[in-house]
Every structure is written in structure tokens, then in C-alpha cells.
Amino acid sequence: MKKTDSFDRLEKFVLELARYAHKDQVRKYTGEPYIHHLIGVANLVKEYGGSTEMVCAALLHDVVEDTSTSDAQLYQILSATELSEEEARKIVSLVMELTDRFVKENYPDLNRRQRKALECERLSQISPDAQTIKLCDLIDNSSTIRESGNDFARVYLAEKQDILKVMTMGNPQLYERAMQTGR
């Protein structure tokens, strides 16, 4: 289990929210609970100086994409906590920036390469804070996927390099780390 000792009270609340939302999900290549990935991403964000809002968004970055939770529901839950409306809006905004838009369900006529190219272009436009979280996501995913040793690893790592070519506004140290991870 990945450590959560450095999380503050609010981050621990959001961790439990993420744990509940993703309770039945496991990592595709390891079989471990999906929450481990979210904690890994959040720990990296925290390690590199991310704000509480960024850590919370890292914990929730897949909640709209991979669960039945909507952005409106997420905002409603967050705004019922000690967060200000502005902080809750910031977290939801970051989560939505990190939520894939060009998915097969929405674009069935596009193949994976076409969808990933559009997603790559979209990611080039997201905020520096969202790019920083995405860099942490790429780092955590790369290590897991590379260790799986399957054919998908080559595809994923090539797609990651395409994203890194255009996503240049995030934390520069994380960018360098992401460039080195999975080569």
C-alpha cells in the first residue's frame, strides 16, 4: 500500500471519496486496487510542491472518466466540505481538464491513434497545474505498464512521448522525470 502519511485532513477525506468511487476497480496489469495509482499520483504532486487543490484533483483525476460520478456531483460533494466554493470549483476544474474527451464512446468512428492525437492537442492547452498532475499520472502509469512487459507497453510509451512533446507548461522537474521514465 502506498503511503498517505503526508496527506492533510482534507486530502484524507478526498482519498476516502476516491477510494469509495473506485472501490471495485483494479489496475489492468497488476490487479492491485486502483486507489494505489491515485495515491501514487497524489504523492508525486505533493512531493513536487503541488497545492492541496492539486493533490485532491490528483486523487480524483479519473473519477469522472472511470466512474458514474459527474462533475456536478463531484462539485456538490466537495462544496459540502470545509472547502470554499472557489477551492471546490478549482478541484473540479482540474479534474475536468484531466478527463479524456476523445474516448471511443464519444468518437466511435475514430481509431485509437486518431483519438489520441486529438487528446494530445487538447492536453497541450490545459493549465500548468493540470499538466503537472498529468505528468505525475504519466510517470506512475509508465512504471506500472513498463513492468508488465506486454505489447501494450510499447504503444503506451510511444503515446506518452507524443504527449510530452506538446505538454510543456507543467512542473519542469516532473517533465524531465517523465521524459526519463519508460524510455
TrEMBL record:
GO terms for molecular function: guanosine-3',5'-bis(diphosphate) 3'-diphosphatase activity. Residues 30-151 form the HD/PDEase domain. InterPro entries: HD/PDEase_dom, MESH1. SUPFAM superfamilies: HD-domain/PDEase-like (SSF109604). It comes from the Bacteria. Pfam families: HD_4. This is HD/PDEase domain-containing protein.
